[in-house]
Amino acid sequence: MQPIISTVIPTRNRPLIVERAVKSALAQTFTEIEVIVVIDGSDACTREVLEEIDDSRLKVIELPVRGGAAAARNAGVSAAVGEWIAFLDDDDEWFPQKLERQIEVAKGSQYELPIVASRLTARSPKGDYIRPRRFLSLSEPISEYLLARNSLFQGEGLIQTSVLLTKKQLLQQVPFRTDLLRHQDWDWLLRASNLAGIGIEFVSEPLAIWYVDEKRNTVSTTSNWRNSLAWIQENKNLVTPRAYSAFIMVEVGAQAAQERAWQEFLPLLSEAILGKPQLIDFLLYFGLWLIPQETRRSIRALLTKQSSSIKSA
């Protein structure tokens, strides 16, 4: 039987963690699937672990040269047989009904090429959090949903790679960029959603576990604030002025502040003002530079705990 959905999992040097991801994909209640693990470069350990999984639906591709997460995802898409593609990061896992719920929404979508996402459970040493807190509204630009915040706390808007489901046709038309060091997921969503016939659908319940504490050594390569600034300047035509300002003040600002690059405080602020920053963007920007990271985390954890207590009361 030909699979309807192809799951693509990029990985490198994380054999035990990717095994968990693969088993969660193979345990789906929707069974007309194939699971393609793309090993990003030579990795005998990972290959040996995966060879122990006895399931004909599992395919393993080992790339001869390391190319990064985007190249691995593109290779998986090229090898996929299914009409639909679902991505899963090697350090995340799916709940059993993930694909069943998403394909139901996808097949009922009004859009020719829907992009289906869902909530997820963000798991960290400090506890579990449901993200995102809200979905994209009908009149809201996708760039503002992804890149701008309307509150002081993270997790308001989010579309994470491990909850993406879309047609192979779209991914062939708009592949992931392999030249980026960061923001490959945002970059793809902005370019894809700019095409005719594309729309984003959401499933309300959490369908994946996003292991936030395990994001340190992934296939994606780390970078610094200069890479992020160059990316948003290059893609200024794909984002609104508000999203442009918010990204610089929060995403770029956070990285620069962490590096203590005080000489960049005013230049980044000046660049952000070229867009349309809002009061919340200024508050976040100054907070990132003036309040120590550990203090911000403690405040966020305390207020999140209080909010959860109020909701459960």
Explain what this protein looks like in three dimensions.
The chain has 313 residues and is of the alpha/beta class. It folds into 2 domains: 5-214, Spore Coat Polysaccharide Biosynthesis Protein SpsA, Chain A (Alpha-Beta Complex), CATH 3.90.550; 225-312, no CATH class. The protein is built from 12 helices and 9 strands. It has a 5-stranded mixed beta sheet. Strands 5-9-6-7 form a 4-stranded mixed beta sheet. Strand 6 (113-124) and strand 7 form a beta hairpin. It is globular.
List keywords for this structure.
313 residues, alpha/beta, 2 domains, 5-stranded mixed β-sheet, 19% strand
Under CATH, the homologous superfamily of the largest domain reads Spore Coat Polysaccharide Biosynthesis Protein SpsA, Chain A
Major sheet: arrangement of strands: 3-2-1-4-8
CATH architecture of the largest domain: Alpha-Beta Complex
Q: How would a textbook summarize the main sheet?
A: 5 strands, mixed
- The tally of domains stands at 2
Shape: globular
- Measured between the Cα atoms of the first and last residue, the distance is 50 Å
**Number of distinct helices:** 12
Q: What is the strand tally?
A: 9
Domain Glycosyltransferase 2-like: 6-153
Protein name: Glycosyl transferase
GO molecular function, one term: transferase activity
Keywords: Transferase
